[in-house]
Amino acid sequence: MGLFKRKHLLLGLSVMPLVITGALAAEEKAKTIAELAARYDSTSCKECHPEIHAQWEKSIHARSIFGDAQVGRTAATIKTTIENGLKEWPYSGVKTPGDVGVKQLMMCTKCHLPQLQDAEDSVAKEIVKNVYAFADGDEKAGQTLQTLNIGCTICHGTNAIVHKWTDGYPQKDTVYGSKDGVHEDPSHPVMKQSKIMKESILCGQCHGLGPNFEHDNPTQCATLYGTHLYAYIPEGGQEKCQECHMHKSKLGHNIQSYRSAEMAKMALDVNVEAQAFQWRDVTTTTPAANVVVAITNKAGHAIPDG
Amino acid sequence: MTAKTLDGNVFYKNEKIFMPVPQQFGRGDKMGRGPYEKSGLLRDTSLPPHKTVKEQFSIPVYKETTVDGKLVRTIIANDFTVDVEIWYLPYGKKEDPGNAQKWFAVSKKMSIEKGGK
Q1: Is A2 on the interface with B (CB under 8 A)?
Q2: For residue A101, is pLDDT > 80?
Q3: I want to staple A256 with a disulfide (CB 3.0 to 4.6 A). Which of A217, A260, B13, B34 is the partner?
């Protein structure tokens, strides 16, 4: 009986990791950028969802570690993070850019490239090498960085489930959307409803609450979801991120923010009142003007965030 | 916000910055710059959701001199223009390529009466 119990326990221990992580644990980690990009490639989605794919291609999500196509600001900030941060901090383990591994880069890629957790340090090093090459004017390096992105399988896969003990762990063969069913894609044959696909929490995972305390050295890119929760909701706001950034803007999966004229127009109401007058004090006349600018923030969060 | 004469001479310039001021490493009084050193806020002047923020600008339309020990204010122009612009500036300078985004602009023609006492 005692032996049986022990065996049962051992069986439980050996099976549990596979059950919890599903197909994620079975796959070997990517060794190159090309390999990682191929695993998370959204091209196969294009065949059945050409309009959505075309919208997404215009978004910053489609170049998430490079940044805006014109300037590559995100790549530049990754370099600054290494030069002014990691290299200067005594306990980061980084003396030169070549020392940067997945652990260090995750301070940026938690959001800018969450799939990096499925890669070996060699991929982090290749990213860093390309970031520095791009900063030195190498356009090809910039193009390489743009092969990595927040593609379909991040929001509709990895990040589609937040409460994993409640809703289960995201499965590699499954695409998460608005309904259950069969999905006509050999690599993602299963379609399941994500309970948060239309909720702000989906976006809040990255457009976040402030310091990311799970890191050894917390970073703070976004405070957007924080102001949504603690400032917008208390004012009676009820709209979800997707309602403005995807539907009302008519931008769909070309999810935009401050660079978009549509979003800027939706964000603020501005009223300017101006009056010129002459102030008189005994013999001195003072010509002056008074201008009152009233700005109303109509967005579901503070502007700007950070 | 600028005020300029009809021939383009700017005689008033002012700006207000709306933004959260991040705290460096969540300690002390220094602002954190990049995401890698930001943790917390020192102050926050960002535009809060569902609220109206009013900014008032008082523009002197005169030059001040002293003549025979007496203060004299001479009008700069009876007709002038006030330009109000709102820019989204994510980092660096407004002039950096691909950086700042102009969200709003309006020009108001202003006039101060001539003559009288």
Answers
A1: no
A2: yes
A3: A260
Residue of B nearest to A264 (CA): B103
Weakest-pLDDT range from A13-22, A36-45, A122-131, A255-264: A13-22
What does pTM read for this prediction?
A: 0.89
CB contacts of A211 in chain B (<8 Å) are 26, 38-40
Beta carbons of A297 and B50 less than 8 Å apart:
yes
Contacts of A56 (CB under 8 A, 6+ apart): A42, A62, A151, A152, A253, A254
ipTM over 0.85: yes
Per the model's pLDDT, the better-predicted residue between A92 and A281 turns out to be: A92
Do the chains contact at A290 and B57, CB–CB below 8 Å? yes
User: Do residues A176 and A161 make contact, with C-beta atoms less than 8 angstroms apart?
Assistant: yes
The residue assigned the tokens 């300037």 is A71
Is residue B54 a contact partner of residue A293, using CB atoms and an 8 Å limit?
yes
The residues spanned by each domain of chain B are 1-11+55-117
User: Is residue A227 predicted with pLDDT exceeding 60?
Assistant: yes
